[in-house]
Amino acid sequence: MKTGNNHRFIFQAESDRKVRQWHFSIQNFLVFTLVSLLILGTSLFFGAEYLTRFLYQQKLQEVRDNFTSLSGALLELNGKLSYLDQKMDIIEEKERAVRTYANLPEIDQDVRSLGIGGIRFEKYTNQDHIMPGLSKKISDLEMDVDHLARKVKLELASFESIYDKVVKDTERMKHIPSIRPVLGGYLNSRFGYRKDPIDGVKRFHQGLDFSVFSGTPIYAPADGVIQSARYRGSFGKQIKINHEFGYNTMFLHLSKISVKRGQKVKRGDLIGKTGNTGRSTAPHLHYEVHYNGVAKNPMDYFFSGVVN
Asked: Tens digits of per-residue pLDDT, 93-136?
């Protein structure tokens, strides 16, 4: 409807009883439309905000449930790490004992502490709003794993050094003259000063004299290499063995030499037979042990002792 220069909008509702009309000017219509759009926009905005929050809370709860499960797994893993750490403490005690047996110095406590120490990494603080305390649990677990890894590494290094020492000592034991070179007989002259049986002059006797029948087998007291095997004046037929690690042995007055220079022998190998050659008054074996060039009492090296 148009009145003069003004436009008006008429809305009419009819029923059986009456007719209703609403008259709006164009200004009123525009105001009504704007208000309606504003109300609609506001409703949509707050509705979308509510829906977003609702969906966010749903997803957040799902994430929290997952992290709760993860937290339980972390606690279980931490328990297993604690168990392993206890076992490592037992291994550490045994390692100390083995080092003592192997004659190795104990690892200094400062070195041990330095070897198993670690740095705590705080990398998960941005997760605390989702799962309070998760950062600390992960960081503690990381620290425990790092601590255990360093402890294992230190123990492995220690046992490697023990193993190397034992292998070396085992090899060394093979080369220490530790068995009697002859079986039977009796010890006629010991290590130390004595009156020479030929000229009566008191001299230092650098070995042991075993009185045995001529032709008694002589055995190598340890692994080594024949350094010399020949006749040497007053020594008679003589054998000298280089056992390495500073050890040498000598066998004098033999009747027979069964080895050659440069030949490798092992403990218990037959190397010759006793006799009465050289400066000797009766069949016997003169036996000497030298360590780093110094004569030692052979009796100190016999595992089973010496039978008189």
From this structure: 766 666 665 666 666 555 555 544 444 444 444 555 555 555 66
Residue 6 covered by a domain = yes
Encoded tokens for 166: 């034992």
**Helix extents (H) in the chain:** 26-101, 109-116, 134-174
**Same structural domain for residues 46 and 102?**
no
pLDDT at 144 (0 to 100): 64
HEC readout, 244-295: ECCEEEEEEEEEEECCCCCCEECCCCEEEEEECCCCCCCCEEEEEEEECCEE
Q: How far apart are the first and last CA of the chain?
A: 149
Classified as helix, coil or strand, 42 is: helix
Structural domain harbouring 108: 68-174
C-alpha closest to that of 285 among 306, 262, 260, 263: 306
pTM here?
A: 0.52
Residues 44 and 76 reside in one and the same domain:
no
CA atoms of 25 and 9, how far apart (whole Å): 6
Tell me if 124 is assigned to some domain: yes
Does residue 180 lie within any of the structural domains? no
pLDDT, tens digit (0-9, with 9 covering 90-100), for 110-121: 555 554 444 444
Bridge partners (DSSP) of residue 186 are 211
Last residue of a domain, one of 151, 174, 197: 174
On whether the CB atoms of residues 104 and 164 are closer than 8 A, the answer is no
In the 8-state DSSP scheme, what is residue 131? S
Question: How many Å apart are CA 200 and CA 135, to the nearest integer?
Answer: 92
